[in-house]
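Consider the tokenized backbone below.
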């Protein structure tokens, strides 16, 4: 076992993947190397590894076969090819025989095929015969699923198997080590209760997020839109009427558009929710600008917080400023709360804006602008946020091209598991469609004219 780091906690799966990739880059890997992720949590980690190593990414599909009426007690597993692996000792302890489990195995295989069809979208699985295979997950608690996955993987005749995980229990690592040629684990803390305890953000990974990550690596080619070495990140100060407003500008190489964020009341360009959405947009090839709409002193004045014409003016100014920095990309707006009103107001005034996405927004505060908004607008509202939902539905009738998307079981702050991921995926779909229709010539941002933060 190769243990490289001791960390208190990973920020999220993306950071864990980047740290894991740093360690793997130091190894003598050949040009046959590929990365296989265990779904779904392993995919964002593996994506970062595959990007850094510039090698193909695929999923290692395995479905556990549980005991009758005790589905969490694993008696075996099936692979995507329909091959089964059985724990005969456990089966005997349950007083069963393999033939008793065949119907369950068939059911699990059908579920697995349905998942594969959703996630691979018709792409064939990666041929690992004779290759160096790096198997990645977001962590190992018991290691049972990884163990079965490796045993099934060996039947495909890879030349070398490396297991790479950010964190894992000592017992899981000991279980896995004999089943692979090498294991890289960044930390094996003790005691170890669950993988999620070692992540600040362990939000459940959705099928939709996996689809987007795999799509970026479709055809097993290197993704053009990468985070880190292949992205320009700048702390900026946006000038306006003698003041400077702090912000952060991130632009992937060959960016297909720029999304400018308008934060809500009581927030700033450091909004953790907006930053999380922005990170996902960067990974999908969009540049992002997050900036403060108000100075620190202005933010304390509630009259200014709800002064929509002022916020609109600031957003229009920031849009023109960033385009004046040599960045010629189609523009989209992402607004939250009062920032949604600012985004709609600015979109009504600027022809270069392609579309607007609002999260838990207050479009009612932009009433004077709504009839002049001609671009596609998506208003995303939590189903539990009943008053804001009513205001959005009312505003919808006044916007020419507007859709209201209701997320069931979600409140105003979108704190529920998977809520922000749903917002992000819907935003990406709209921005992909609308920004592609803009014919502005795209150039890469040099940052040389930006006001440093």
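A designed sequence for it:
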């Amino acid at each position: 076992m190769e243990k490289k780091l001791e960390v208190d906690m990973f920020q999220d799966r993306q950071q864990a993947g980047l740290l894991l990739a740093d360690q793997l880059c130091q190894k003598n890997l050949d040009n046959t190397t590929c990365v296989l992720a265990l779904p779904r949590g392993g995919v964002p980690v593996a994506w970062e590894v595959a990007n850094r190593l510039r090698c193909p990414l695929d999923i290692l599909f395995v479905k556990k076969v549980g005991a009758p009426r005790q589905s969490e007690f694993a008696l075996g597993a099936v692979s995507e090819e329909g091959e089964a692996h059985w724990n005969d000792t456990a089966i005997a302890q349950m007083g069963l025989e393999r033939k008793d489990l065949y119907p369950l195995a068939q059911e699990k295989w059908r579920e697995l095929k349905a998942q594969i069809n959703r996630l691979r979208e018709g792409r064939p699985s990666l041929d690992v015969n004779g290759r160096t295979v790096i198997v990645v997950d977001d962590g190992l608690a018991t290691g049972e699923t990884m163990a079965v996955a490796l045993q099934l993987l060996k039947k495909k005749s890879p030349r070398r198997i490396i297991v790479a995980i950010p964190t894992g229990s000592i017992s899981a690592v000991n279980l896995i080590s004999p089943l692979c040629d090498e294991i890289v684990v960044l930390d094996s803390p003790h005691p170890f209760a669950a993988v999620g305890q070692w992540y600040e953000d362990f939000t459940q990974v959705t099928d939709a997020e996996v689809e987007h990550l795999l799509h970026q690596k479709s055809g097993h080619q290197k993704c053009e839109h990468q985070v880190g070495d292949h992205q320009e990140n700048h702390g900026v100060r946006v000038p306006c009427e003698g003041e400077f407003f702090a912000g952060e500008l991130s632009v992937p190489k060959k960016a297909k558009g720029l999304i400018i964020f308008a934060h809500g009341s009581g927030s700033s360009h450091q909004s953790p929710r907006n930053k999380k959405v922005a990170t996902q947009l960067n990974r999908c090839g969009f540049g992002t600008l997050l900036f403060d709409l108000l100075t620190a002193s202005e933010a304390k004045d509630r009259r200014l917080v709800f002064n929509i014409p002022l916020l609109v003016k600031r957003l229009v100014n920031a849009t023109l400023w960033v385009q004046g920095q040599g960045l010629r990309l189609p523009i989209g707006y992402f607004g939250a709360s009062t920032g949604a009103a600012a985004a709609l107001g600015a979109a009504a005034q600027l022809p270069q804006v392609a579309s607007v996405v609002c999260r838990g927004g207050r479009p009612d505060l932009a009433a004077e602008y709504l009839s002049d908004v001609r671009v596609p607008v998506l208003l995303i509202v939590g189903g539990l946020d009943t008053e804001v939902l009513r205001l959005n539905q009312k505003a919808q009738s006044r916007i020419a091209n507007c859709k209201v998307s209701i997320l069931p079981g979600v409140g105003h702050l979108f704190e529920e598991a998977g809520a922000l991921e749903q917002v992000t995926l819907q935003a990406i779909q709209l921005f992909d469609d609308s920004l592609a229709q803009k014919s502005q010539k795209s150039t890469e941002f040099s940052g040389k004219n930006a006001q440093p933060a």
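The longest strand covers residues 70-79.
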